[in-house]
Amino acid sequence: MPMLSIARLTKRYGENLLFDLRDFQLEAARAYVLTGMNGAGKSTLLRVLAGLAPAEAEGVHFAGVPVTLAPYPAALRRDIVYVHQHPVMFSTSVAGNIGYGLHARGMARAEAAQLVEQAMHWAGVQHLRGSRPATLSGGEKQRVALARAKVLHPRLLLLDEPTASLDGEAREQVLALIPSLTEAGSTVVMACHDRDLINLPDVRRLKLRDGHLEEK
Ligand SMILES: Nc1ncnc2c1ncn2[C@@H]1O[C@H](COP(=O)(O)OP(=O)(O)OP(=O)(O)O)[C@@H](O)[C@H]1O
């Protein structure tokens, strides 16, 4: 059973049809790379799936349960997490940022602190725990954002060009975190450009072209 399936998903901006997808499916605990030219609609598709942009959807099932995208149900908000290319950080510490969602969900302090500690370790940012996010590099911010998403155990993690502004070691450090996300049971969809050759084990390649999705 797919983790997410949508019989038809159509997105228009005004008169312009951006995409019209049929039988869109994502499997549980899998990594996908979503490519396409500038303006193909990669970011928009991720934002639609995250409930951040409206679209017309028919036949949406999440974990086998029929759902709608509009209104966007609280259960999807909990299970689907979107990470922006330039993540917005709250002006508290790194640890405070990572724990923010857990506190918002009402988790007890001690339990949250433990999960934040594990997530900082996972993302390799323990040494930055007390730092103010404004002082972090692009790669460090992206890893903090991934840790902030991971602690929430999302079923679907949507990463919008997570490595686009990174190179060298920073890029590799971010990519190295992806397999453990799928091992932990999350499905990961990463938008990126065709030229960003992302090689990950068992990754599926999806390409948005002329408003349709091709599996490569
Ligand atoms: N709010 C909006 N109103 C009107 N048009 C929009 C809006 N947001 C995006 N678009 C248009 O939709 C198209 C797809 O944009 P989107 O950002 O999804 O593409 P993308 O594939 O992520 O591109 P890139 O690789 O450049 O980030 C673009 O032509 C963009 O100008």
From TrEMBL:
What UniProt keywords apply to this chain's record, in alphabetical order?
A: ATP-binding, Cell membrane, Membrane, Nucleotide-binding
**What region holds the ABC transporter domain?**
4-216
Question: Which InterPro entries does the record cross-reference, listed alphabetically?
Answer: AAA+_ATPase, ABC_transporter-like_ATP-bd, ABC_transpr_LolD-like, P-loop_NTPase
Q: Which SMART domains match?
A: AAA (SM00382)
Which molecular function terms from Gene Ontology are attached? ATP binding; ATP hydrolysis activity; transmembrane transporter activity
The record, for Gene3D superfamilies, names:
P-loop containing nucleotide triphosphate hydrolases
Q: What's one Pfam family the UniProt record gives for this protein?
A: ABC_tran
The Gene Ontology CC terms held by the record are: plasma membrane
Protein name stated in the entry: ATP-binding cassette domain-containing protein
Q: Which organism is it from?
A: Massilia eburnea
